[in-house]
Design brief:
Rossmann fold, globular
Length: about 260
């Protein structure tokens, strides 16, 4: 079920599916709530999944007030309140995982636990994070997932008329929002704040991640207070929950028990 709630920027799209304990899902660079297999996979394991779309993604209104990482974090803080996710566990991916960590560092009660899929936010000169906007659209798809077809729901151009126009606009605003989080580099000082994250964290990485090298798991694990598990999804790329939704849902469900 998709709801359109109200928040400061206008409409906030929230997808809800399943019954049981509530768990949030915060998307990364690609967002297609209601059509994403991972959400259904996680809901099928006995959870009520609540998945809000960040500003500029899907039908959530872009916000002209978001100028920097601190504005993004404040927006996420408001969004989890509106979505009823404050204090709940959260599964977050990519740029969404970076924002979840930033929020957890300044608002310790925001999440009871975190399952993070290939978070951004740290930087290593010897293994720089790849820029998904320095290539063509097809090249970007190849960077995001091991199988470019995995994100076909987001990049689908089969619609016609107004539906195609709407889909094109949604992709444009989503790409603009993502660019604001990864350009020029996705490093905004998280390394100086990450030690403040007090909730349990589980790390998940795709073995074929071409954006954030899997070795970054070590960098996050050494800085976080309470890492409960580190997992690699074989054959998956950066957005592992798109490449292998069943495997990531199983790992998340085990971590949330």
């Amino acid at each position: 079920m998709i709801d359109l709630a109200q928040w400061k920027a206008g409409s906030l799209e929230i997808w809800r599916e399943g019954d049981g304990p509530t768990v949030g899902y915060l998307h990364g660079m690609v967002c297609a709530p209601g059509r994403q297999p991972f959400v259904s996979e996680l809901a099928g394991r006995g959870f009520r999944v609540v998945a809000p779309s960040l500003p500029g993604y899907s039908r959530t209104s872009p916000s002209v007030d978001i100028r920097n990482i601190h504005d993004w974090v404040f927006a996420l803080s408001e969004i989890i309140d509106v979505a009823g996710l404050a204090g709940a566990p959260m599964v977050a991916s990519s740029t969404g995982a970076m924002l979840a960590l930033e929020l957890a560092a300044v608002r310790p009660e925001a999440f009871s636990s975190l399952v993070l899929v290939a978070p951004l936010g740290l930087w290593r000169d010897d293994r720089p994070v790849a820029d998904p906007f320095s290539t063509t659209l097809s090249g970007q798809r190849a960077l995001l997932t091991k199988d470019p077809a995995a994100t076909a729901l987001f990049f689908d151009d089969s619609a016609a008329g107004d539906l195609l126009v709407d889909a094109t606009i949604q992709r444009y605003t989503a790409r603009t929002a993502t660019a604001s989080l990864v350009w020029p580099i996705p490093e905004f000082g998280l390394a100086e704040r990450i030690h403040r994250v007090s909730c349990p964290v589980t790390l998940v990485w795709g073995s074929g991640d071409q954006i954030v090298d899997p070795s970054y798991a070590d960098a996050f694990a050494t800085r976080l207070r309470d890492v409960r598990g580190r997992h690699v999804v074989n054959g998956a790329g950066h957005l592992a929950e798109w490449d292998d939704p069943r495997a990531v849902a199983s790992l998340a469900a085990a971590a949330l028990v």
